[in-house]
Amino acid sequence: MTDTANPDPQSPVPPTIGAALRHASARLRDLDLQSADLEAGLLLGQVTGLDRLGLLTRTGTELTGAQWEAFQDLLGRRAGRVPLQYLTGSQEFMSLPFAVSPAVLIPRPETEHLVEAILDLEESAGAPDQIEMGRLAADVGTGSGAIAVSLASYVTTLRVVATDISAEALAVAGENARRHDVAGRVEFRLGAGLAPLDDLAGRLDYLISNPPYIPSGEIASLDPEVRDFEPLAALDGGPDGLTLVRELAGKGASLLKPGGHLAVEVMAGQAEAVQGLLAGGPWDDVRAVPDYGGHLRVVVARRS
Question: What CATH number did the domain enclosing 99 receive?
Answer without folding.
Answer: 3.40.50.150
